[in-house]
Design brief:
By secondary structure, this protein is of the alpha+beta class. Among the domains are: about 100 residues, P-loop containing nucleotide triphosphate hydrolases (Rossmann fold, 3-Layer(aba) Sandwich); about 50 residues. The chain contains 5 helices and 9 strands, in the order αβαβββαααβββββ. The strands form 3 sheets. A 5-stranded antiparallel sheet has the order 8-7-6-5-9, with no helix packed on it. Strands 1-2 form a two-stranded parallel sheet. Strands 3-4 form a two-stranded antiparallel ribbon. A hairpin with a 3-residue loop joins strand 5 and strand 6. The chain is elongated.
């Protein structure tokens, strides 16, 4: 469980591990700190890669995590990780490479380090010997016949109003004021922070949207 107010009370027994988010750790210090999941699309998150300002905010958050350690800091990242039911290859976070090498005692196995230096692309597997198709799933032919809205270079349209998305389901066809028409591929997370992955037409490609902020019209359920 994550740290709560009850956990912050002083106890006689100090032999325990505190598990918390980086935001919860602000202002605190510990002799030993472990930061896990330092991988691209996790930290920094996939959503933060859309703009420079969001990426800088992730970088500042990483600095907060680094400076919580008084004596020793351990950073971990996985070579592969299960996401959306599939085992996929992971790339270590760019934030690790921004740390001066003289401050790092790399415990990565030698074989894994050699693969990283060679920068060979890793194949994605589903864990059962079958490769995952890296291409975005194609849309039904009847869906492609719909006319996509033209992108407006990020300018919002005053009369565009999104629908109530509480009952959004996978497979629904939707419209976004900027990206045009798309199809919902997956929904993850819990209300009110659930996110939808939408495959949009033409050059807009696949986007992951936080539903409480995304203005989407449901075209077809």
């Amino acid at each position: 469980a994550l740290l709560t107010d009850a956990d912050s009370k002083k106890e006689d027994n100090n032999d325990f591990v505190s598990l918390m988010t980086i935001h919860m750790a602000k202002g605190l210090e510990f002799k030993q700190v472990f930061i896990v999941g330092l991988e691209e699309n996790l930290f920094p998150s996939q959503l933060s890669l859309q703009t420079r300002s969001e990426l800088e905010e992730e970088r500042r958050l990483f600095y907060v995590a680094l400076t919580r350690a008084e004596q020793q800091l351990t950073i971990t990242h996985a070579a592969t990780r299960y996401r959306w039911g599939n085992l996929i290859s992971s790339e270590r976070s760019r934030f690790i490479d921004e740390i001066e090498p003289k401050f790092i005692d790399d415990k990565t196995p030698k074989r894994a380090q050699e693969k990283r230096v060679q920068q060979k692309p890793l194949k994605n597997w589903n864990g059962f010997g079958k490769a995952i198709n890296p291409k975005a799933p194609s849309l039904p032919s009847r869906f492609k016949k719909l006319k996509a809205s033209k992108p407006n270079n990020g300018q919002t349209t005053a009369n565009f109003e999104g629908d109530n998305l509480d009952n959004m389901k996978v497979g629904m066809q939707v419209e976004h004021q900027r990206f045009g028409l798309g199809k919902v591929l997956s929904i993850e997370g819990l209300f009110p922070d659930h996110k939808a992955t939408v495959q949009f037409e033409s050059q807009n490609g696949q986007k992951q949207l936080l539903l409480k902020y995304a203005k989407l019209k449901i075209i077809r359920s």
